Amino acid sequence: MAEPTSEGKRLTASKPKLSEVEIFCDGACSGNPGPGGYGAILRCRGVEKELSGAEKQTTNNRMELTAALEALRQLTRPCKVTVTTDSQYLVKGMTEWFAAWQRKNWTNSKKEPVLNRDLWEALLDSVKLHNVSWKWVRGHNGHPENERCDALAREAISRINS
Fold first, then answer.
1. Would you say 114 and 101 are in contact if contact means Cβ atoms under 8 Å apart?
2. What is the domain-level CATH number for residue 60?
3. 96-141 pLDDT, tens per residue?
4. Which of 26, 55, 70, 145 is catalytic?
5. How far apart are CA 122 and CA 120, in angstroms?
6. Is residue 50 annotated as part of the catalytic site, yes or no?
7. In-domain check, residue 5
8. Residue 118 bears catalytic tag
9. The domain containing residue 24 runs over which residues?
């Protein structure tokens, strides 16, 4: 029996399998605007990392965006990412609205400047490296990771208020 040869075969480099990362994130504000915080959980291969932070004067929407952005900034190489949030603003902005905003020079359907443009642009830049899907869950509805992220955000607000 003849040995197989590599003649006529194409050699292809196989793409490395992307690490799968779950991100859960939430923002909170005490007054809107007012002191705000964010919380996020990153999970990969059974390992979790929690993040939180706060600002003295902000809005709930800015904290929702900041939570996702800070979590994505933790990733150091391309990953397959699922971001789970209770913010429809974040999910719709990243999946439905951003293309029209960019086409219209960052104006919304009311022909007004898009709020939080700095964070939207940073988020769009941060997802370029990854394969990201966005998932919405109802907030304050018993979702364990969402509840934990909310607690992290509120703890962060408490820290800056004390």
1. yes
2. 3.30.420.10
3. 999 999 999 999 999 999 999 999 999 999 999 999 999 999 998 9
4. 26
5. 5
6. no
7. no
8. no
9. 19-161
